[in-house]
Amino acid sequence: MSYFSQSQLKLLLLCKEKILYDSTYRKCNPLYHSFARRRFVARIGRSRDDFKYVVKFRGSGHGTKMLISELIGGVVAKLLKLRVPELVFVQLDEAFGQTEGDEEIQDLLQGSRGLNLGLHFLSGALTFDPVTTKVDGLLASKIVWMDAFLTNVDRTVKNTNMLMWHKELWLIDHGATLYFHHSWTNHEKQALIPFSLIKDHVLLSFADQLEEVDIECKKILTDEVIRELVNLIPDDFANWTEDSETPESIREIYYQFLSERLKHSYIFLNEAQNARKTFI
Predict the structure, then answer these.
(1) Boundary (domain end) residue, out of 88, 120, 152
(2) For labelling alongside 260, which of 33, 53, 204, 223 has CA 20 to 30 A away?
């Protein structure tokens, strides 16, 4: 029996469409320069509901694959009761970015018209510091397990991709997960990798309940839930292949990768446990 129905997954995603407009584009963009240095992957915009969102653009280097990673990673985190900002589908208005003076950024924005993905901007949040902030063993274990499952290469000491907001730990930026899809070959083999890069995870030293978490997470992420999860991928995100693959066949590959990886979770679990021994 599934823990979550398709409608409940959509509620977890809160996949409302937000139409970003341009009149407050600069004014609501305090992180403009820092995002510009990060290869124009994301930018802050204000929607017509007057909330601010960090927008991940389809026109960036990794295209809609990054958006799929962000979508899957964010929803899996919500299913595991981890804190992530509200996820929304963002429909860029045709006029968005027309006043942008930088030609490279304007090209990015024009190439991102249509459906994108956004995360609610956590105003006032601070970057997580593993030196000054200790994390509960159960919470750390759940985050490490999830990142090993999704092959997240980007939650390290150098770039934690976690924020402290109202004294609570929030996860952001899952665009580096599921890196198998950048080659899009041998997904069956890629599903069974131990994921040795887990040794660099910023929370690994705190993760002392990995076996317990493995049991708990697999009870939540049932086969039915995985199927419903990949069905959240919009057709508009699953159209990057030049072959004869359809959005349905692309979603099927994501389903096979995730379900096989989950069935063989002992592979990445053992890798994480062995890597953690170096900290003990």
Answers:
(1) 120
(2) 204
